[in-house]
């Protein structure tokens, strides 16, 4: 039998750290990753046949569970007609119509192949449209691995303690100004000083790459007003929150209209897809209708569009988000109650079907609170859960996700497992 360990040994000789994306390597939680052979509904199975209840969901896309028949069948139908055309295809038009109908701030859209591409392209558009060079991002927010964003970044960059990466030229990093998330006074001060030089402000409207931190009441609205006042484009990075916290994303959930929005994950149904879109006057500045260049050999790929469209169909079912939110509440309330029972200092954050678990009594509202939490306790909890067949994101700085395949029985089993693990943590 192929074992996880054998595969990881082979992988480490050939792939940096044995993986194709850093957080997968389990470096921060310790131990070795498992290798998934197949996935279905709320579950993953590794190459040794062990089953895991999965709260990572391919880092977000699997909102209807893994291997959903409607998505799989849409892909199967699409591939019979060929894998890539390099010409326009009808599914791209349907995809654009679907996005525009679901996200009122988006008049026009450009499909790309990843979240990283979406954010890099949106920033180029912001710079091209405003004629300004500087951008603002938030400490602990992750927007993919473009040079402009690997400055005080979240996710893997934060997990590995290198929030600002070597290889990012100083000239590029100098154009990225950073702010503390959820601190409106700091934003006002920066805009007062630099407002006229800023092309755009990019934010995860719910921070999901330093665990899960919702915006304080009125925070996003205040940022919207600051951007409008200073002619700065407000860019929502909804790669994670889009079609996750609500059908219309965080912008619908909080009632804010950004100038540009980036998408990824769910929009591709599990295929490599991203997109960016926004106001028509801005989007028309993208080539070939305008001078700002951005292109992609595989962009709008017919198979990826088929998967994404099937997914976007499923999530429009009446009551889908109410149901998903109720499941997430049940899960997080249940885990919290088990922690309290065991006397473990613990708190949870949750927006829609996105959640964060914190080993502290405090409500976590800032990067500082998130990064000074008890990472060692999280790591012990992670391994206790993993051993018992529950897979949480392998880092204290990642959000968790619930899918519509996580039914009551699955959630109850996870809560019971969490209770066992909390008790075992206290016993040691
Ligand atoms: N933005 C956000 C908010 C993300 O969470 C991620 C990925 N986790 C990205 C951008 C980058 O997306 P990708 O990994 O598809 O490049």
Automatic annotation (TrEMBL):
Record's protein name: Glutamate-1-semialdehyde 2,1-aminomutase
Domain of life where this protein originates: Bacteria
Q: Which reaction does it catalyse?
A: (S)-4-amino-5-oxopentanoate = 5-aminolevulinate
Query: What SUPFAM superfamilies does this protein map onto?
Result: PLP-dependent transferases
Q: Where in the cell is it found?
A: Cytoplasm
NCBIfam families registered for this protein in UniProt = hemL, PRK00062.1
As stated in the Swiss-Prot or TrEMBL entry, residues carrying the post-translational modification N6-(pyridoxal phosphate)lysine are 265
What is the originating organism of this protein?
Luteibacter rhizovicinus DSM 16549
Q: Which CDD domains match?
A: OAT_like
**Molecular functions (GO terms):** glutamate-1-semialdehyde 2,1-aminomutase activity; pyridoxal phosphate binding; transaminase activity
**Gene3D superfamilies (UniProt xref):** Aspartate Aminotransferase, domain 1 (3.90.1150.10), Type I PLP-dependent aspartate aminotransferase-like (Major domain) (3.40.640.10)
Q: Cellular component per GO? A: cytoplasm
* Family of this protein: Belongs to the class-III pyridoxal-phosphate-dependent aminotransferase family. HemL subfamily.
| Names of required cofactors | pyridoxal 5'-phosphate
Indicate whether Isomerase appears among the record's keywords: yes
Q: In which pathway does it act?
A: Porphyrin-containing compound metabolism; protoporphyrin-IX biosynthesis; 5-aminolevulinate from L-glutamyl-tRNA(Glu): step 2/2
